[in-house]
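[SOLVED] Need 3D model of a two-part complex

Original post:
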Amino acid sequence: MNAPASPPSPYSSATHNAKIESHTLSVLVDNEPGVLARVVSLFSGRGYNIESLTVAEVAHADHLSRITIVTSGAPETIDQIHHQLERLVPVRQVTDLTASKRSLERELAMIKVRGRGENRSDALQVAEAFRARVVDATTESFIFELTGRPAKIDEFVDLMRPIGLVEVSRTGVAAISRGPDPI
Amino acid sequence: MSKEMTGAEMVVQALIDQGVDTLFGYPGGAVLPIYDVLFHQEKVHHILVRHEQGAAHAAEGYARASGKVGVLLVTSGPGATNTVTGLTDALMDSIPLVCITGQVPTHLIGSDAFQECDTVGITRHCTKHNYLVKNVADLPRILHEAFYVASSGRPGPVVIDIPKDVQFARGVYTPPAGAGHKTYHPKLDADMDAIRTAVAMMAAAKRPIFYTGGGVINSGPAASALLRELVALTGFPITSTLMGLGAYPGSGENWLGMLGMHGTFEANNAMHDCDLMIAVGSRFDDRITGRLDAFSPGSKKIHIDIDRSSINKNVKVDLPIVGDCGHVLEALVRVWRAEAMHAEKQPLDHWWAQINEWRERKSLAYRTSDTTIKPQYAVQRLYALTRNHDVYITTEVGQHQMWAAQHFHFDEPNRWMTSGGLGTMGYGLPAAIGAQLAHPNALVIDIAGEASILMNIQEMSTAIQYRLPVKIFILNNEYMGMVRQWQELLHGGRYSHSYSEALPDFVKLAEAFGGKGIRCSDPATLDAAIQEMIDYDGPVIFDCHVDKIENCFPMIPSGKAHNDMLLADLSDDAGLEIGSIIDEKGKMLV
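Solution:
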């Protein structure tokens, strides 16, 4: 992340030199109308970053959804985000998976690549190395499906760019903690 | 008792079951079914305001003066949007409100129907929580839950948006029961290890100070009583934010006065030089801290707050204690009595000697006059002449608000109602109406400015209609005084649009509404005029003509530290250019 665009306020010069970290927060919420808007508007209203956000119902009978947010900021800011999220009435639990250091993170991407001849075989070779699957093919294009850590997907996309990258669709990060215990 | 009824009947029944006796509102198309139910009952007293913003502030004033939840009822569209300022005000100052808004019928939602707006979308940012009720079966639960959410934990406003068809629909009403909410249960009791650590830190402190805020008042009268007990036991000095005035008596021995931007010299210097700060229900707002990197640099800090996100938000603290102020203070008093009373404690004589030196600076002093009424003098006389009354004070926002906070002293909590966080001009009159309804026989005074009062002057009609004898005491200097002061400090005295060239005749205005008007511009007749106001049984507008260019001091200029205050006498010194005090960085701040 770059330095903030506006000059640091004289009211709060304490944190502007702090190191910016990226953290994955797992937020368990009551699946009620507006809950996602509440979470998202908390971030926009208080000027926090969202790098990635995924949401889906995870327990239908209990009406629970899990929102996984990748955010970035100084450690104090991440701490603030954590506690601001906990303040929302429909939020049941917030876990900072990055702080717990025992998280598994995955993202799924679909990558469309266009090309003929040598580019086609190059694309297939790279895909094989990354264990990406071909889910659609024409005489002049492929769509690859790839699952992995976000950095792996970034790398794959970078390699496809000179070969003939058309576009990318990514799900954002889903995350869970390792071991037998729940998040 | 579970009983079948319409949604509109459920609303009124839930208000009755929640103990609501006063409801502020304004009817309109989307709430007519609820108004029809109100017509048939006498338990809930409906107060017809003249603008929905007035309803919100009146409900705030009622809530703060009574300790109960304030309730308002407005229609869809403009009715709802007009409450937004009041809701935001309540969110910033942690005031429990339940705001019921009508909505167009569910099948019209999203069609840009007449008087439709996305109420839950608009109010999501300015409420603690909000609901759109699409099914009458959910309505009883949501109504009761709203009261629980508004009043538990850190209090705040809750909106319930009810489409008109849901108000007509029939369903089974259930009375309030159980835990209030299936998952929302804020932590009230503090961790006992933290309490013991706090007591040990307090016993070892050489230069301690209590810095208390609105959280003590929100916690209820017991918290204020416990605070007084703890201050008496420890002998520590105490200062408070604007919102916390009255929790510790303004006439108390250990009282240093308010702190912050317009706080006293002794309070701010003690905050700067202390070695232990005990923050109780206060949130290190920028008006309190001044320049953050120079804020109380040598102290350990204990922060007691019910809201975990308030801790380390602006100022990093050494010992956080998450819990309700009342519960935490009770534990602190108990453990202090058991442990610290017998332990070796630091003598505080040196600290008090230093504080008394600061007190000698007499930072609230001002240059008196025989010919013009000084605004500080007007507030002092108002205080002196109302001391034997059961008095509640509200304010608008600006210089008059700060002078009221400095020169009117409060010995009890819930007596002082002001817009602290949001700084809403137009708050004071409707809030006074709310306070008067909570305490019909009390003397309720809105200390106002001539600019602020015009923002909700229409509520005079409400006061007349319900025979509420609120007094509006205007410190009239014809300027938006605080704006003028900042323009003097920051913008070379270019008073851009801060002078009101066309003010109404406030005496005639009072009479036009059906109240009494009094004007005074002579210090010699001020006492008699104030007495006349107090003695009049009905609403009064008191137009007090004061010094037009008086500034509010002391002041921590923007971007400066607590020990870098601007004092009244200093600003009079020849050679000191008042506009040069704030540097370029400070000018960026609000």
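Edit: Chain B touches chain A at residues 120-121, 124-125, 128-130, 132, 149, 154, 181-184, 286, 289-293, 307-309, 311-314, 316, 558-559, 585-586, 588-589 (CB under 8 Å).
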